[in-house]
């Protein structure tokens, strides 16, 4: 018989995070821009009390442990209450991405079998559109007070504030099994139907601990943290858990994600740390450059979700903001790797440091990774060999929600990304496997091409996609949105690549467009672009 440790068996529960924040950081603030238009402020103590009232409400509505409750909401204090109230009472908080097509939203709600769906006022028309297709939903709860409820909704609604007002908050968080399901997120499903990743209390708490570490996101009680990444997109990268866990002030931007509104909130609330996808920072940078603005408190941001162009790292650095490049996915809760320098990199020349900081970084404890070739053989960590990236760990998906079979072979989950790993363990994504360009049997990294293009002063956004070619099978086409008021020709842009990438990687042509379609999570929608340019005739063809 093994000798067992003799420590207390306290389960790792999501409720313990908010209980901790309320007890030890009780007066620390949560500030939210509301759909009502104003700024709302209260404390962790207030938040926990209202989360308890919500748990009482759900029990009164008949929601049982393990049942799903959907959310369609911006980053705000009520959404945070849903995160803690729903999971804390043992039900499953299902964050739905409102930017998906209505049919996909209905599909997700039905697949998850949501009992109730809680939504922000913004999404009333969406709810009115999908409700008829979601017959199993017992009620739609609008996140508003009585005064803001619509007078004549097309769907019967419950009023969130009325429901909470009817409860006294005398509620004790249940001692759940830490392996119980806590929350559910669907991938945006650029191909096929969206698939659900069902997180547990244990995986969520472990992920929050890891995310908060200094060489991961690095959250501290002395920070003021504003997640721009939506709470409907992979738990806002775990920040709604990691921030209360460390007791930092939390600032939630609601629906206002444009450059001007974000800048205003950063300055007003003294934000020190933030997180978001590259497209968000494009908007903010543009606003700041146009108005010659400077940050007074903002020092660090995590950027991920797609590759961060080096030009963006430089532009933010010039404003005094350290960029922390991170990689992950819905199936990984989402954090996998974060890019920080090691101690021995301190004396490297700036250029060399930058080259490291442009990679997706090293794994955080809890994640293990490897790259393999087409036959599943492990590839060397030489920074050159690239192959399919596989991961494993306690917050990585075992199987999709309601799937019969595991999502992995031999305990390694295939991410669908293609990457290199260097001898120090710095991983670099060359592409999503679907986006790789195969020219004459050799692979071209679309991300590398985009990174070069993004550094050109006249380029606002650039996507590199494959186009059919009679001789090479596929060749790269660069699709570009020009910066407002700037001009650049096809030939000038192509010559900008000279010496920066291998000659045969240089795109065969440039297509200027007014807009690049974005996915529901703010990434360039290359699948759509490929469809749009399916019949494009390259000058080299
Ligand atoms: P989706 O965008 O499909 O809804 P995710 O947000 O989970 O879902 O996307 C995960 C994918 O995003 C990763 O597999 C990877 O292709 C891409 N990704 C995330 N972070 C980065 C990054 N820092 N660099 C390059 N690609 C990234």
UniProtKB/TrEMBL annotation:
GO terms for molecular function: ligase activity. Keywords: Fatty acid metabolism, Ligase, Lipid metabolism. The keyword Lipid metabolism applies. InterPro entries: AMP-bd_C, AMP-bd_C_sf, AMP-binding_CS, AMP-dep_synth/lig_dom, ANL_N_sf. Its EC number is 6.2.1.44. Residues 20-401 form the AMP-dependent synthetase/ligase domain. Gene3D superfamilies: 3.30.300.30, N-terminal domain of ligase-like (3.40.50.12780). The keyword Ligase applies. Residues 449-523 form the AMP-binding enzyme C-terminal domain. NCBIfam families: PRK06018.1, PRK06187.1, PRK07008.1. Belongs to the ATP-dependent AMP-binding enzyme family. This is 3-methylmercaptopropionyl-CoA ligase.
